[in-house]
Amino acid sequence: MSVVTITKENFRQEVLQSRQPVLLDFWADWCAPCRRVGPVVDEIAGERPDIKVGKVDVTGQRELAAAFQVASIPMLVVLEGGRVVCQTVGAQPKEAILSLLPSVRQR
Q1: CB 27, CB 57: distance < 8 Å
Q2: Which of 22, 75, 88, 99 shows the smallest number of beta carbons within 10 Å?
Q3: Cα–Cα distance list, 13 to 22, 75, 106 (Å)
Q4: Superfamily of domain 4-100
């Protein structure tokens, strides 16, 4: 699954109304740790079709950054049913990011 660019305009539809858990990556292009985490998040998006992955550019989406009280980036947030279930701040290895995500559900 591809990564979705999240904006205040599509936040409700893409995140709050998502039937899938959502991994949000709050980032900025000037942030070196964000540039290290970004490709890992992209890779997870390709490997986990059961998870919706979105990226929020905090420079252009200040309202969303404020709503999530983003004080440091990169910040990763996992939501299920529109509610935050966990979050972490700082560059994380892939295994740590995967540990934030719900297990693959048997269908």
Answers
A1: yes
A2: 99
A3: 12, 21, 25
A4: Glutaredoxin (3.40.30.10)
Asked whether the beta carbons of 94 and 47 are under 8 A apart, the reply is no
pLDDT score for 2? 87
86 has which bridge partners? 78
Distance CA 10, CA 12 (A): 6
From the number of C-beta atoms within 10 Å of its C-beta (0-12, 13-18, 19+), residue 107 rates as exposed
Pick from 33, 19, 30, 24: which is nearest to 6 by CA? 24
Q: What is the pLDDT of residue 1?
A: 72
Active site (catalytic) residues: 31, 34
Question: Consecutive sets of 10 residues in the chain, 107 residues long: mean pLDDT of each?
Answer: 93 96 97 97 95 97 97 97 95 95 59
Q: Is 85 helix (H, G, I), strand (E, B) or coil?
A: strand
